[in-house]
Amino acid sequence: MPSGSPLENFKYNPPKEPFLDILFHDEHIMVVNKPSGLLSVPGRLAENHDSIISRIQTMHPEAMAVHRLDMDTSGIMVVGLTKEAISNLGKQFNQKTVTKRYVALVDGIIPDEGEVNLPLRCDLENRPLQIVDFEQGKESRTLYCRLDNSFISNDYNRPHISAVKLIPVTGRSHQLRIHMAQTGHAILGDRFYASEEVMNRTERLCLHAFYLKFRHPVSGIEYDFLSTPEFLKALPEI
After folding, report:
1. What is the pLDDT of residue 8?
2. Where is the Pseudouridine synthase RsuA/RluA-like domain (predicted)?
3. Structural element, H or E, at residue 178
4. Closest by alpha carbon to 167, among 185, 187, 142, 139?
């Protein structure tokens, strides 16, 4: 982890364009591609109000988040626009019937595939960080699969890194970030769990939610969405 507090000297400066990158929109839901650096929901301080939800609420005041991505993580989010949709989508996430897949660039040459099973809890003295705790932590499992480096965009292709597909079996806060760091392969650009050298290799956290599948909360039709981050040339198989 970088020396000093990860929030020291932090100033929230979210990207302004595009205002919303909308992948799908009807009267019940909106699916967006969240950029790195933008909060999913408004922060407690007034200067941290700008977020995916506050932007959507300019058009749909009843919109609410049914899941979140870390501010530094980019990728696909679905947002409920009505009470019925919010309730239904919330149940799908709680019942773990939603399929989520992520891609990342990590430090070093990670094994071809594996599983990380380390219980996590909030680091109460260093919020919002999480820590491994075998006594009080909650079960946290991540599956990973290394991708060929030909997937990596030219601007991000550096020596001694790996592209990986990540499958969160559980959905704890910062789970993918801390699990990768615990394997010795921290995600590039991670200001919370990577060394200073790994953190500074890229200007952004190279973690992206590239696939999301769920059932439409009203029609029941199964929807799936894909999104390619700038650090990859192409996406892996689901």
Report:
1. 65
2. 28-182
3. helix 175-182
4. 142
Q: What is the domain extent for residue 39?
A: 22-226
Strand 161-168 to 99-107 pairing? antiparallel
Tokens of 4: 């000093």
> Would you give the end-to-end CA distance of the chain in angstroms?
31
User: Once rounded to an integer, what is the mean pLDDT over residues 171-191?
Assistant: 97
The catalytic residue positions are 70
Q: How many domains does the chain fold into?
A: 1
In a domain, 90, yes or no: yes
Does 35 fall in a domain? Answer: yes
**pTM over the 0.85 mark:** yes
Read off φ and ψ for residue 4, nearest 5 degrees. Answer: 80, 170
Q: Which residues of 13-28 are buried (b: 16+ CB within 10 A; e: fewer)?
A: eeeeeeebeebebeeb
Average pLDDT over residues 53-79: 98
